[in-house]
Structure formats: C-alpha cells, structure tokens
Design brief:
- The protein is of the alpha/beta class.
- It folds into two domains: 2-81, 2-Layer Sandwich (Translation Initiation Factor IF3), CATH 3.30.110; 89-196, DsrEFH-like (Hypothetical Protein Ychn, Chain: A).
- The chain contains seven helices and nine strands.
- It has helices spanning 12-23, 37-49, 104-115, 135-138, 145-153, 162-168, 182-191; strands at 2-4, 29-34, 55-59, 62-68, 89-93, 126-129, 157-161, 178-180, 193-196.
- Strands 8-7-6-5-9 form a five-stranded parallel β-sheet.
- A hairpin with a 2-residue loop joins strand 3 (55-59) and strand 4.
- Helix 1 packs parallel to helix 2 (37-49).
- The longest helix has 13 residues, at 37-49.
- It is elongated.
Length: 197
C-alpha cells in the first residue's frame, strides 16, 4: 500500500500512517510519501514507537518511508506528534583533545567529565565522535574514555563515525556506544542544537 502525505500539515501524516498500518495485515508493506522534514521526523518517531523498523529513501527534497507491519500497533496516540520538533542537544567532537598538547587531552576529559555533574535536562542526548575523536571510544587508556563510558551509562548516546573507525583500522576496538554513518550524523547535526568542542 502507498499513501501520499506530501504537503499535509502535521499531525495528519501520522494519522494517515496510523490508519494505513491498522488496515494492513501482518507482513504487508506500507510506503509513505513525504516532503516536509517535520512530517518525516514525526512519522519515523511514530513507526519506531510501535517497534516497527522503517527504511528511508531521500530524493531531491522528497522522502519515501517503507515499513513492513510485523506486529499490531501499540502506540495509538497520534495527537502527540505535533508540528514542533523538540530539539535535543548534540556534542560534536572532531578531535580527541581540545587545543594542543600537553594539556589538550586532559582538558577535553575534564569537559566531558563535567557533563555528568550538570542537571540531567542540560545534558546532551548524543555525543558524536568523528576523525581522531573515535580514539576516545576505542582506547581504554585514553583520558576521556572513562568520562564517555560514564555518560553512556547515564543514558547519553555515544556515536562513533564508522568510516573513521574503518580508516583507522580500529572497528573491532569500539568499547563505547555504537558505530554510526554520515546520514545519521548529518541528520542529528541539522535537526538539533549542536555544540562543538
């Protein structure tokens, strides 16, 4: 089944998605056409809140979401998917230090360690590591490893650039968080409040 949700104001795309999924049998596929970022965000949230796994195709400002109905819906409240996207905080790290040595490594470790002491509402939802910053998630001896591990245990999602891990030959050493990709990272940076250290 295909539904065209292009040019619809939210939460209408979520409502239409819910109705379409409810009408499908288990194992059937739904294709949703969208052309607004906020609608895409909400439809993806709704699908994932129902423990379904969407796939996304982007094409010149338009989006195609595909999802196979693998179970009945559990989240029926489409009204909570309004037009406002709640922005999260993202810390974007391009290096494993702040400034030059000899204080750069220790300084970043102190910054990261301080995040655990701030109010939970002020903490970032994500810390993204690219380039040499992935050395912090792969080397237990790195000064920032313990701070990142503690933040992960507190619920902060730690993402390491998968291409960077491959380029450095350290994919198998990832000890904190998950490997990510350019598409996920750029979406997080563009759709949230980002802090670069």
């Amino acid at each position: 089944m295909q539904i065209d949700c292009r040019n619809l104001d939210c939460p209408k795309p979520v409502i239409n998605t819910k109705e379409a999924l409810n009408s499908l049998e288990i194992g059937e596929n739904l294709e949703i056409l969208l052309n607004k970022a906020v609608s895409l965000e909400n439809v993806l949230k709704f699908i994932k809140s129902n423990n379904l796994k969407p796939t996304l195709i982007t094409n010149d400002g338009e989006f195609i979401v595909n999802v196979v109905k693998t179970s009945e819906l559990t989240d029926h409240d489409a009204s909570k998917y309004g037009c406002e996207i709640v922005k999260k905080k993202v810390v974007f790290l391009k290096d494993d230090k702040v400034g030059s040595e000899p204080i750069g490594n220790g300084l970043l470790a102190k910054f990261l360690g301080s995040i655990a002491s701030v109010e939970p509402v002020s903490r970032p939802s994500y810390i993204i590591c690219v380039n040499d910053a992935v050395l912090m998630t792969t080397n237990r001896a790195h000064p920032s490893y313990a701070a990142l591990k503690e933040l992960e245990m507190m619920g902060v999602k730690i993402l390491s650039c998968g291409s960077c891990l491959e380029a450095l030959g350290i994919v198998d050493r990832l000890g904190i968080g998950e490997a990510s990709n350019a598409f996920e990272i750029i979406n997080l940076l563009l759709n949230n409040e980002t802090v670069c250290l």
